[in-house]
Structure formats: C-alpha cells, structure tokens
C-alpha cells in the first residue's frame, strides 16, 4: 500500500513538473529559467520589455505569465504613488510610509550593521507597496558643497561609501527587492546635469568616483544600476561604452540591468550597443519636452526594431538585454517566497530612530564660564528654553526632488523637544523660506525676515537657553534635485539671526538640518553646534534624545566642512572645474577631493571628515610595532580603546594609510581612509580593536599598468577618531 502512495505522489510530482514550464519552476536553475523564457518570447515581446510602459513600470509578458516590473523611488523610503503616465501623484491614500534618514545621515553613523537593517526595512515597505525595484541607493561622491543632491549620497570618501552601501544592498535584496545603485557615473552636481560632459583622469575615475559603485556591484551584488544623466568623456552615461560595456559589465561582471535615469537615453544605436537594458522616462517626442505618451517612440522601441530588422544591430544585443531583464524579474517580481512586507511598523520606526540617533554629529560643545557645557541639556533643571527656527516644525521630507516622501508619521524637532522639556519650551519661527518648488523658489520679503528675527530676539532675552533649529531645506536651490545651491552660507537670513540671538543670549545651541556643508562664519559666537541631517520620521525623537543626553551622540562627518567655499577642491580651479562651461567640465582636482584636498594642500576644514564629538571621552593605546610586509602578507594592528568619561558612548576608530611620497612618482593624497570600526563602551570599560593591514591598502591606480599597484616603500598607518587626529601611528615597510 505504502509503495502505491509513493508511486502516486512521484507521478503527480513528475506530471506537475511536466505541466509547469521550466521558467515558472522556482526550484529550477535561474539561468535555465531565463533561457527557457527567452526561447518562448516573440520579437515584439522582447523589444517591449526593454522600455517603459508607464512612468514607473516596464512590461513583463502577460501571455507567459511573466509580471510587469514595478519601480519606485527612492533611497530613503518608498515614494508616494505616481500617475501612470505623468509626474503627477496618483492621489492614493494608502501610500504613506516610513521616512528613513537621508543617506548622508546613514553614512554619518559609520555603522554598516545599521545600513543592513536600513536596507531590509526599506525593502519590507517596498514589498508591501508592490515594488520590485527601489531606485537607490545613491553613491555619487560629494565633490562640491553646492551639489543639490548630496543629501541622497554617502559623502566624500569612496571607502566609507562602499562599506555602507554593501550591507544596505544586501539587506534590501535579501527579500526580493532590487537595489538600483545610482547615478552611474560622475553625476556630482545638478547644474546642467542632463548634458554636462565630465572629463577626468583615469586615476580620479578609478580611485574616487567608481570604487563605491564597484563595491555595490561586486560585493553588494546589486541587481540593477541606474545610468546618470550627464556625459562622460563625450558619451551619455546611460549608454556609455567605457562605463557600461567595458567596466561595469566587462571588468566587474555585472549580470543585472542597466536602467536609464528618467529621460537619460538619447541615441538608439548607442543604447542598443553600449549596454543599456531598460529605457525609462524618455520624453517621447525625442526632444526636450514630453509629447503625447507613446512609448513606441522610445529609443529602444520602434527605432530599435528598425535597426534590428535592418541588421544594423545584431539580435544578440536584444537577447542580452532581455536575459538581464528576465533575471531581474525572476529575482524580484516572480520570486514566490517573498515576504508580504509591512508599512510604518514599530520595527521600521525603530530602525529609523536608531539610525537617526547614531547619525547626529556633535560639532561643538564649549565649556562655559560656569565650567559646564550647554549639552547635554538636563531636563531636570527646568530651564526656560526657546526653540527658534522654521526647521523645528517644517516637513523636510517634502520637496527635494525624486526622493520626496509622504511619511505617515513625523516627529518634528519641536515635537521631540516638547516631549522632553514639556512646558519649559516656547517656539518662534525665526525665519521663513517659502514653499518647496522645482525650478524656482519664493522670494521672502525683507520685512518678513526682519520681523521674524525681531520677535525671536525679543523672546530670546527671556529664555535661559535658546535652541536654534535651522540649516537648509528641500526648496529649489537648496538640498534639491535639478539645481545646485547658489551660496555656501546659510540662506533665509539665518546667519544674521544666529548672531542676533547670540548677542542677547550666550546659551545658544545651533542645530543644523541639512545634507550639505554650509558656511559657519558665526560659529565662534556659538558654544554648541549639532549637525543633524535630514533624519526622517523620527527626527524629533533623536534630536530631543541627543540634546537631553539620553542618547550620547556618536556621528562622524561623512564629508568635510570647508571654512570657505574656495577652500573646496572643485572651486579651486575656476568655472571649468565647477560648474563647467555648460558643455564640458574638467575635474581638475583629480584625486584630491574632500579631506584628500584639505590635508594634502594644507587647507584645514572648519570641521574635518570623520570628525564628531561625544559626551564622554576615549583613549586609544597601542604598542607601536614597526613592521615589514612583503608580497601578499598581511599584518595586524591592535588598539585598546578606553572610555575615560562618565557616560557610556560610541566612538569610531579610523585607519588611514599615509604613503611616503618617495614610493612612487605618482601623486598620492597625504592619507586615505582604509578601515574603520565603531565601538560602544560603558564608562571605564576597555576593548581591543584589531585592524588587519593588507597590501591593497597601499595601492593606487597606475595608468601605465591600467591597474592598482601597491608600490614598495614606507607607509604610515594612522589610527584615530577623525581624519586629523591620530594618537596611534605605525610605520610599515612594504616590499613587493
Ligand atoms: C530622477 C532622478 C532619479 C530618479 C528618477 C525617477 O530624475 O535623477 O534619481 O530615480 O528620476 O524619479
């Protein structure tokens, strides 16, 4: 009897498999499924799959039961539903989400484990909203403080960006949501972004602007990459032979899908031959404005069919695109074991809040004449606190461009401070900035600015402590896509307001919410300064927790804060370096970007890369051991870290390599970040951190050999808690 049942079960299983086409069998080999599906598709179905059917979806194959592919912005949360074929929002009422902190904030945590939780939580929100691809993360390098989209990226150092983007991608893709790493590549400004032709050296390309993308693809396993709008060395990035065919798909072995930025395709032949797989958002009349919505006019639609039918481009170009699109579909839309996902769960708010807690950077906390510091501000003292500043109440998730979000819950800084200091809090707006808009911004009458400032100053006289909450916002010309900032200083009359407040009340705490460095000529008049980013739904909880001391700040700057704009590398070489001459741009600062520039040229930043204070203090100890390494040896450096203060807290040990200039005739930055570790310690506790030092840390790109070379010679290993403070240094002699 048992045998009969077994035979019956086996027969049914075989029949099921026999009836189920291979491509639909989730247990079958992925590549076999791809080939099976490809073999069943018609010519028209294949071409249709290579371009949009709506603003944010691309077609599957209905006849074969292969679902459409749904994409959504953005890197910090799932964007509200957009209409089928226009940029207008669809007006849904079930698409409010968790707004996670901006990626500069995530980078400021220097905590890769948090990045993984962030990616996983964001993917769960994407799954619930039925999205297969999240259009993020962005890892374009922070080259100028004027770039309107720096808040969406992970700072000025490719190693930090790489270390943080890999876990974000793994956390996201684990449950079947594709990351789409953007914008590949050299989209380091918004001015003339859709056509500026970036020229740069191979060393700058390989050492600064590509490494984070390379990590995302090779170590993160990103399933899609978004081409940038700009040109690189004369060819649009979305169909750039060097970037896509040679480097991304050739050298790096990328097996996923290259998606245009929306409207980033400009040429059918290049799109066919240079590795573009999915065309989205093209202005269908092929000119610069959107015609009636006909995707047949897309470059990879009828014009592509024409080239294929004429034999001008080989059918293999089409099959390669479709294989990649099917692979992406099987990894996402067609994946059967995906979780259902969730929106605005306690877990997601917890992740968002832990990221924002660890992101806030304490820049300044001077000891006052009283011998104490203003921060942390003990709620038990019952001091009268005036909160000044529009950013204390403004919804900073609105505006900014495609990363805009419709959060279900927002704890504003004022909410967070009121939760802790309750009736001791008074508020006044202090300044006005107008509405977030694109392409232009509101002019605020001077009379409004003056009157708001006078009210604030009058109220500040009566307060024991003043907390100013300002910075930038998501208006056009601020931290916003589609345009760059016009000035380095704080806008909307904030500098004058800060100075006027400091004049009448020395107990002034300035909290800046921004995604960019700003001019801080007023800093010497302010005893306490926090850099608090765009922190998303739980912003106020974190700002309140850090100001009151229930959270000990541990953020470190992911980019330098120059004293003056001209101190920044991009602004040192005239207009062609930034913003370019409207046609071409020359990255004359080459490999010296950010702290690499400041420290190599001896132009100190006001606040350096990797800098951030704590409410406690730490001591680093190591027994210096000058070491000789050769070949592929590796060595270890052990560092003891002790919390020498009275509060538990975290610090991030950073390891930089400083090559002896005699090692090679190639110019080298005086130091480069090559490792870091964040540690948490109770007061008085000690832990030991072990850094592995490997030869690849010594390497730089050698144009003569077209590869990275670790030249023999002396290397200083500098270990500290910012890019300018190294209590530990060791010399390593390296022999090839
Ligand atoms: C935008 C952005 C890109 C975004 C896309 C879709 O122009 O550059 O980051 O994902 O279009 O909104």
Task: Give a brief description.
This protein has 736 residues and is α/β, with parallel strands linked by helices. 28% of the residues lie in helices and 18% in strands. The protein has three domains: 2-85 and 93-331, Glycoside hydrolase, family 3, N-terminal domain (TIM Barrel), CATH 3.20.20.300; 360-559, Rossmann fold, CATH 3.40.50.1700; 618-735, Immunoglobulin-like, CATH 2.60.40.10.
Structure notes:
The protein has 18 helices and 26 strands. With 736 residues, the protein is α/β, with parallel strands linked by helices. The chain folds into three domains: 323 residues, Glycoside hydrolase, family 3, N-terminal domain (TIM Barrel, Alpha-Beta Barrel); 200 residues, Glycoside hydrolase family 3 C-terminal domain (Rossmann fold, 3-Layer(aba) Sandwich), CATH 3.40.50.1700; 118 residues, Immunoglobulins (Immunoglobulin-like, Sandwich), CATH 2.60.40. The strands form six sheets. A six-stranded mixed β-sheet has the order 1-2-3-4-6-9. Strands 10-15-14-13-11-12 form a six-stranded mixed β-sheet, sandwiched between helices. A five-stranded mixed β-sheet has the order 18-26-25-20-21, with no helix packed on it. Helix 14 packs across helix 17. It is globular, with a radius of gyration of 27 Å. It starts with a helix and ends with a strand. The structure holds alpha-D-glucopyranose (GLC). The site of alpha-D-glucopyranose (GLC) has 6 residues, from loops.
């Amino acid at each position: 009897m048992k045998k009969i049942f077994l035979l019956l079960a086996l027969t049914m299983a075989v029949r099921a498999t026999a009836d189920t086409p291979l491509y639909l069998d989730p247990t079958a080999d992925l590549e076999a499924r791809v080939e099976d599906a490809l073999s069943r598709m018609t010519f028209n179905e294949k071409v249709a799959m290579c371009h949009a059917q709506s603003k944010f979806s691309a077609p599957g194959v209905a006849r074969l039961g292969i679902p459409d592919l749904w994409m959504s912005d953005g890197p910090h949360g799932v964007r509200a539903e957009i209409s089928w074929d226009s940029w207008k929002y669809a007006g849904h009422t079930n698409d409010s989400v968790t707004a996670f902190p901006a990626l500069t904030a995530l980078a400021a945590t220097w905590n890769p484990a948090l990045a993984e939780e962030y990616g996983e939580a964001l993917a769960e929100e994407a799954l619930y909203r039925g999205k297969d691809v999240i259009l993020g993360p962005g890892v374009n390098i922070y080259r100028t403080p004027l770039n309107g989209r720096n808040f969406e990226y992970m700072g000025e150092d490719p190693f930090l960006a790489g270390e943080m983007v890999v876990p974000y991608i793994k956390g996201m893709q684990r449950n079947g949501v594709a990351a789409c790493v953007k914008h590949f590549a050299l989209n380091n400004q918004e001015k003339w972004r859709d056509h500026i032709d970036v020229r740069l050296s191979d060393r700058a390309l390989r050492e600064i602007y590509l490494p984070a993308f390379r990590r995302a693809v090779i170590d993160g396993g990103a399933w899609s990459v978004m081409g940038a709008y700009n040109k690189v060395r004369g060819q649009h990035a979305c169909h750039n032979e060097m970037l896509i065919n040679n480097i991304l798909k050739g050298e790096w072995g990328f097996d996923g899908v290259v998606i245009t930025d929306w409207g980033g395709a400009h040429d059918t032949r290049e799109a066919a031959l240079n590795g573009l797989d999915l065309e989205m958002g093209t202005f269908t009349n092929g000119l610069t404005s959107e015609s009636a919505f006909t995707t047949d006019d897309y470059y990879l639609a009828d014009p592509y069919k024409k080239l294929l039918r004429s034999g001008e481009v080989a059918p293999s170009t089409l099959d390669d695109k479709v294989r990649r699109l099917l692979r992406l579909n099987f990894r996402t839309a067609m994946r059967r074991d995906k979780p259902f996902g969730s929106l605005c769960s306690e877990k997601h708010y917890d992740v968002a809040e832990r990221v924002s807690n660890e992101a806030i950077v304490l820049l300044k906390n001077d000891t006052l004449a009283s011998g104490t510091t203003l921060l942390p501000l003990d709620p038990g003292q019952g001091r009268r606190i005036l909160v000044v500043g529009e950013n204390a109440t403004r919804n900073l998730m609105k505006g900014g461009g495609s990363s805009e979000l419709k959060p279900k819950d927002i704890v504003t800084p004022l909410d967070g401070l009121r939760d802790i200091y309750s009736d001791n809090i008074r508020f006044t707006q202090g300044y006005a900035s107008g509405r977030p808009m694109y392409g232009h911004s509101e002019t605020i009458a001077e009379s409004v600015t003056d009157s708001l400032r006078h009210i604030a100053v009058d109220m500040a006289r009566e307060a024991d402590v003043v907390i100013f909450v300002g910075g930038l916002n998501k208006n056009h010309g601020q931290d916003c896509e589609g345009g760059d900032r016009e000035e380095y200083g704080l806008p909307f009359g904030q500098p004058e307001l800060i100075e006027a407040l400091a004049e009448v009340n020395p107990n002034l705490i300035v909290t800046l919410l921004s995604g960019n460095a700003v001019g801080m000529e007023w800093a010497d008049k302010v005893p306490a300064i926090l850099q608090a980013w765009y922190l998303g739904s739980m912003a106020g909880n974190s700002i309140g927790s850090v100001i009151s001391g229930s959270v000990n700040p541990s953020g470190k700057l992911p980019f330098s804060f120059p004293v003056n704009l001209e101190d920044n590398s991009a602004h040192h070489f005239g207009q062609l370096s930034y913003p370019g001459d409207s046609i071409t741009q020359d990255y004359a600062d080459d490999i010296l970007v950010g702290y690499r520039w400041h420290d190599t040229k001896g132009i100190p930043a006001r606040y350096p890369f990797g800098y951030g204070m704590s409410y406690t203090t730490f001591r680093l100890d190591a027994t210096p051991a000058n070491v000789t390494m050769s070949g592929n040896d590796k060595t270890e450096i052990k560092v003891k870290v002790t919390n020498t203060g009275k509060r538990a807290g975290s610090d991030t040990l950073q390891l930089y390599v400083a090559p002896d200039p005699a090692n090679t005739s190639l110019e080298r930055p005086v130091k480069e970040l090559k490792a870091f570790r964040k540690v948490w310690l109770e007061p008085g506790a000690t832990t030991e951190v072990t850094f592995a030092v490997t030869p690849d840390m010594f390497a730089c790109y050698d144009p003569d050999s077209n590869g990275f070379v670790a030249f023999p010679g002396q290397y200083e290993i500098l270990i500290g808690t910012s890019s300018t403070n190294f209590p530990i240094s060791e010399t390593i002699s390296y022999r090839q």
